[in-house]
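QUALITY CONTROL LOG
STEP: pairwise intake check
CHECKER ROLE: data steward
CRITERIA: each record must contain a sequence immediately followed by its structure tokens, with no blank fields

ENTRY 1 OF 2
RESULT FIELD BELOW
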Amino acid sequence: EAEEEAAEAAARRDRIAAAQAYRAQLARMMAVEAEDEAERDAQIQAVADAQQAKRDAELAAREEARRKLMAEVDAIRQEQILEKQMRREAELQESLRPNADQIAMEERYQREQAEKARLAKKKAPEQRL
């Protein structure tokens, strides 16, 4: 009976040792798997970060292009407004400046008035007589 108990105790120790070895092996496998998973997650995150950085760069480039275009459009519009104001001012100045025909008519009128006045003075002494 002592031999039997010794054999059972030895078998129990062997089972306990086998179970502990199995648990240790599972723990090592789980640690390796966790490491591999962490590495995969890091790679996936790196790819996602690179894609997000690319999208951000493209968005920033579009925004910068849009800003430049709007600045260019605004500059062109301001130039057009200034040109229109200058054109209106020139047209106003032109309309206020007498043209050659008006000047010639005014000079002829002044000469005619001067001639009438001269003739009137010349006739005035004759009428007194």
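ENTRY 2 OF 2
RESULT FIELD BELOW
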Amino acid sequence: EKSRAGSTSCELDYVLLSVCLTCFVTQFGAVYMLLRRFRRFQRIADISKVGDEVVVTMLRPHGIRNRIGDMTRVHISGTGHFLLDRIQTFQARALDKHRLLLVVPGANMEISSSMGSCRVIFPRDILDTATLVPVAGMSVALTCLAWGIIGAVYLSGEFD
């Protein structure tokens, strides 16, 4: 029950409290997913040249999705190799969940390293990283869900 005018006591509205908590958790999840991917550095386990291609192997899954006909831009640093550390920004495509194929101009020499870090350049860090749906899309969907819940509760008259 809701408090009446002139009454000195009121009761907790459990429906409204649960709606507010659900919306808070949903909004927190949306923001958390974006912040977790934003400017995230990944440690490099190995960089090697396989034929004419440079392959970077990450310690953990990189989470980069392949988009048809498009490569993502990554920043490589701390490898100890003069060519990789000098250029720093490369085009890359995911080979599997741990390996990236780098496009390295002038890579006709031996390239090998087992250290360094890699990060996807903004805004590709939130657009190209995902499990099933891009992180940016999932965050927008969760935000719309939270506001939809609030709208539905408001229209039901629960805020009166």
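INTAKE CHECK: passed for both entries
DESCRIPTIVE NOTE, ENTRY 2: The first helix runs from residue 14 to 37.
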